[in-house]
Amino acid sequence: MLDINRLKVDVAGKRVLDDINLKIDKGEVFVLFGPNGSGKSTLLKIIMGFYGYELVEGSIVFKGNDIVGRKVEERVKNGIGIMYQHPPSVTGVKLRQIAQRLTDDENKINEWAEKLELTEHLDRDINVGFSGGEMKRSELFQLMLQEPDLLLLDEPESGVDLENISIMGKVLNGYLSHPDKSALIITHTGYILDYVKGKKGSVLMDNRLWCVGEPKEMFDSIRRSGYEKCKGCVCPQKG
């Protein structure tokens, strides 16, 4: 699904990612841990093709095609979708309107709105006056309508209470149970792992990836000993 090789990225002249190698197979969920400011969100944004990130070296191969230099909209059409850590509010555009731009299937819109408990939000401006949990559910709603093959999820449980995590976690678990759907998930709290089973995990710090292991085992180790222990790679290996 995704194969990143020897990736080096600068932001404002400063090296943020250095020699990143990452492979995600079809149907695989990869979980990324790391301290604040370690470059995790940058990695997702460079995969998505956002401006302001200089790819100095390396390749990003998605479904067999190198996508370096491709525009964001091309990557979206090819099957990459992203869920932001801090979704924006959009005044003057209803959630239903953006949904109808993503699909002309009203049944699908209503089905996902019901699953994410957003039926009463469809005719409100996007994220305007929404709680933190409603904003995250709104973001996931839009992502589900895109039906991406690769989901990039930047701290989906950040600032969200346990009830909203449960709603989103069940939706994501159902979606990612499909053998052709994959995900790269950033998490600090680990709550999303109660719903979505990751096959592999890694830690990003000091501009590079450290260790590969089973995500829950890694998270438990991080909680006990902190990130520095990951440099010794003590977790069970998963290839």
The CATH class, by name, is: Alpha Beta
Domains, number: 1
Strand content: 25-35%
Q: What is the ordering of alpha helices and beta strands? A: EEEHEEHEEHHEHEHEEEH
Strand arrangement in the largest pleated sheet: 6-9-10-3-11-12
Through-space gap between termini: 16 Å
Q: Helix count, per DSSP? A: 7
Mean pLDDT: 90
CATH superfamily: P-loop containing nucleotide triphosphate hydrolases
Radius of gyration: 18 Å
**Secondary-structure-derived class:** alpha/beta
The rough form would be described as globular
Q: List low-pLDDT spans.
A: 235-239
CATH fold name: Rossmann fold
Could you say what the CATH architecture is?
A: 3-Layer(aba) Sandwich
**Biggest β-sheet: count, sense, barrel?**
6 strands, mixed
Strands, count: 12
Helix content: 25-40%
